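Before a colleague's protein record goes any further, I have to sign it off. I want your independent view on whether this chain really folds as the tokens say. The record follows directly below this note.
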Amino acid sequence: MKKFTALMLAMLMVMSLLAGCGSSKPAADASTIKIGMSGPLTGGAAVYGKAVEAGMKIAVEEINAKGGLKIEFQSQDDEHDGEKALNAYNNLKDWGMQFFAGAVTTAPCLSIAPTAVEDNIFMMTPSGSSDKIPMTGNNIFQMCFTDPNQGASAAELVAELNMAQNIGIIFDNSDDYSKGLMNGFKTKAAELGLNIVCETNFTADNKTDLSTQVTQCKDAGCDFVFLPFYATEASQVLTQAAKIGYEPTFFGCDGMDGVLTIEGFDKSLAEGLVLMTPFNPDAPETQDFVSKYQAMMNGETPNQFAADGYDVIYAIYDACVAAGVDGTTAPSDACEMLKTYFATNEFSGLTGSGMTWDEQGMISKIPAAVVIENGKYVALG
């Protein structure tokens, strides 16, 4: 009987230990908050995801070197795919993420946002720019301009500087980002009396050859062509234009940032290209960040996406310090504290000063544009 009792006690102890191993998680460290990020780290949009990831890592390294509240950071690859982005978000949530610094591109943001609202996890995307993103819920914030606002700002700049007589537009009809920019530009252009004489498009299924669209703009006599899409497709347009001797003013938005780093693209073809961007890597005040980024990324020059990623980390960190959030704060509680903070406080970073957010998480900051001259960004106007 004694042996039986001892055996039973031993078995109960083992079962208790196993149950404890299976159900418990390490206690949260008050001194460290957890920030997760997802973006396209592989695939056709990887130039943006890698830039954001690097910018965020630089911010994390700087913050952790200060002492005080630290950051544990984890990134996941979503390949610019909505379903994979949601899987990445759930992986980060299982890891213990308190704040979501993503996603990088618009479609994954739109896939994740409803779940982040349901979870009440604070989400700040560095570069998901659709105006639909923050409308999902009041815990979804943006670091970048919304597409329609940026498109409208582009039209205002064109009118202010008298940049165009006959305008052409080439846009991606399968992409929310591109369509949002195009619609914002067209609406404001109509208000300002700008003359749009050619409007042509492509989709994700037929974007490997944009020669037809370029030729249509040339044949219509366009001296200015608005390109509301990403740098990879823009490099094709610029290459094709050079082949047929077509030299209008080409004008892009923030997705154009990074065109000088497209593998295999002749950078000289980007001379004279104008683009909207809140970040200038050639400005004196950005040189510390630029040098750190180049050291991390084998000499590559950072684009606006890298700067937006950097700013997102600092915005979340500053809010946590001011609001008293630490590593033991439940994600939902932390979300409420940060929403309250951003409702009344400004943030200044690499992509702007005095930035504020409205009750839906849309950002307000001054738009800026640059022109590429001798392979460098020069302020326009």
